[in-house]
Amino acid sequence: MEISSKENAHFFSNNTILAVDRSSFKSESSASKEKQSCCGGIKIFLSALSFVYFAKALSGSYLKSTITQIERRFDIPSSLVGVIDGSFEIGNLLIIILVSYFGAKLHRPRIIGAGCLIMSAGTFLIAMPQFFMGRYRYERFPSTINSTVSISPCLQDKSQTPLSALEKYHAKINAGCEKEAGSSMWIYVLLGNLLRGIGETPIQPLGITYIDDYAIEENSALYIGCVQTVAIIGPIFGFLLGSLCAKLYVDIGFVDLESITITHKDAQWVGAWWLGYLIAGVISVLAGIPFWFLPKHLPKPESRKNSSASSEQSKFITEDNKEQHKSYQQVKIGEMAKDFLPSLKNLFGNPVYILHLCASIIQFNSLIGMVTYKPKYIEQQYGQSSSKTNFVIGLINIPAVAFGIFSGGLIMKKFRINVLGAAKLSLGSSFFGYLLLLSLFAMGCENSEVAGLTVSYHGTKQTTDYEQALFSECNSGCVCSKNDWDPICGENGVTYISACLAGCQASNGSGKNTVFFNCSCVGTLESPSQSSSAVVGPCQKGNECPKMFLYFLVVSVITSYTLSVGGTPGYILLLRCIKPHLKSFALGIYTLAIRVLAGIPAPVYFGVAIDTTCLKWGSKRCGGRGACRLYNSSALRYVYLGLTLVLGTVSTFFSVAVLWVLRKRSSPQEETLSAKGERGICGTKSRKDNFVNSDHLIQTTYWPEKETRL
């Protein structure tokens, strides 16, 4: 059979050599035009895909920046906010397999365009509750609200409060209770985020594989790195937009801002969270337009016309059946469905793919949980406002991630790193990144001094039951509620939960300018015989906290860069160790696993763990526990960073296993070639010999059963 094939090839070459010589100029000209057409088409798609990545990253990061705003606006705990955040992944879960498998055989650009429209619809839906629910009401004693009636915070005798003012205040609360009793508007946020997840599904598996199919092989890593780098600009603008909206009051345009008695630094402040979603929805619509005009297929580069697999893939993939080159246009839906289970079995028989998948799942659990609650961590640990937190993350932290991802792609191209090198680079970035994360344990702030919670009314550290310690001799004559959260800052630098619990007898002014006098509990810490005054709002954290926050930012930026360097090598490792016609399917399964086993549970159990560190819960108007007002800083630091580090360490062990399997599959000769700057284990020299020599190692281990091809 081989002799017959050689004779046919020799006969064909002898009869066509003259024709080739005569048309050499024409061939060179057509090849040049085809190359320009190919490069132009792939670059247009690259630009369109980059803009879509920007749009989806902007809306996704903006959601992260509004986590605390949504928590306060709907008065829900962190665990429930985690469920809302995870609903995006649930949307992906619903259709990811169908889109990644069948979408690869249909018109990929148009499917991406349709996804953008669905994604924008979900983004608009998230903002809708703002226009249907009542105005935001925060906990404030009547005396701090603009009023001509002066009311004593310490109600030693209820008769001293004018009846009309007291009735009016409680009637307002009861009206709000009746209106909110039958509403759970946060469900619309959950459904909108679910719809966002459905629309975002085709972008990654279809977009990345479209580039890898029609780009020149050595440019593939750089193009993917460019897409991911441009996508990082989305989170930069997303967090900056979150910073801007967090400074604007939630009901801006609907209420008189002069009547607002809290500032953006207050724990009850809610910014205009809904405004950013309207902007993100418009951008998503614009991003989907170009894909309706892009072709289904692009001309393949000359280097890929004679082989469906890249030079690296030829090392790992057997080509025993050429029917896989059958045109997708001739494939029927029934035939594709019939091939589904064998393709799935093929993927799960690949040890490199499975180990890399396990490492990625655990690492993404770590990263998703860390990123989701990073704004909350900074706010509670370092006493920063939501606006400043989002600004810092968007302007300092995210660019470091972008630079790291781009650096990973550039290193892959510059040094022509093979699969084994990509695994080493990915492992190294994870190891050193989580090693740097250890230092953040030493960069925390002490708990804020809150009388009755973190310190007693006598100035000692609190060790007894928190709720029972809220009452002391200094406020025993006052009629106070332990459920209120209306913090004031005493002259002694201690925060009191309310003016009533501080024992304040009188007040002057209104709104933000209210000053409380004759506060019996304020004077008990340093000068028990003398009563002092207090002002509206909590006290600032200790003097060392700003310095610790600066150290945290520096280490956080370096850690973000180090971890993100391994992003592009991880993608290349995934793409090069699977068969070419299964790339979309493999990426879809990979994305599905990340969504189900990391994206959905990580925000939930991180939120549950963070809720255990809460010292003071808010109360809903109709009863029940609301959002957390104050966290134990030390416990929050150990829970948040500890979970992140433990998960990252486990993922590193799986990355070591990936590297071990790849080393076992590579021969000493190939490692020598790699050291000399050649393609290493996936070298292009003697491709057929490479295939023959590695067949007994690869085929029986990676794919025990031959795949049923179309």
Please explain how this structure is put together.
The chain has helices at about 1-20, 25-65, 65-75, 80-100, 110-125, 165-180, 185-200, 205-215, 215-245, 275-290, 300-305, 315, 335-340, 340-350, 350-370, 375-380, 385-415, 420-435, 545-565, 565-575, 585-600, 600-610, 635-665, 670-675, 685-700; strands spanning about 490, 495, 505-510, 515-520, 530-535, 615-620, 625-630. The protein has about 700 residues and is mainly alpha-helical. The chain has three domains: about 35-145 and about 185-300, MFS general substrate transporter like domains (Growth Hormone, Chain: A); about 340-445 and about 545-610 and about 635-660, Growth Hormone, Chain: A, CATH 1.20.1250.20; about 450-540, no CATH class. The chain has a five-stranded antiparallel β-sheet, with no helix packed on it. Strands 6-7 form a two-stranded antiparallel sheet. Helix 5 (about 110-125) runs antiparallel to helix 7 (about 185-200) and helix 18 runs antiparallel to helix 19. The longest helix has about 40 residues, at about 25-65. About 50% of the residues are buried. Belongs to the organo anion transporter (TC 2.A.60) family.
User: What general form does the structure show?
Assistant: elongated
Q: What portion of the residues fall into strands of 2 or more residues?
A: under 5%
**Can you tell me the number of structural domains?**
3
Cα-atom Rg, whole angstroms?
31 Å
- The largest beta-sheet arranges its strands as 2-1-5-4-3
> What proportion of the residues is helical, as a percent range?
55-70%
CATH class designation of the largest domain: Mainly Alpha
Name the structural class: mainly alpha
Sketch the major β-sheet: 5 strands, antiparallel
Determine the number of helices (DSSP H or I, runs of at least 4 residues). 25
Distance between the termini: 24 Å
CATH superfamily of the largest domain: MFS general substrate transporter like domains
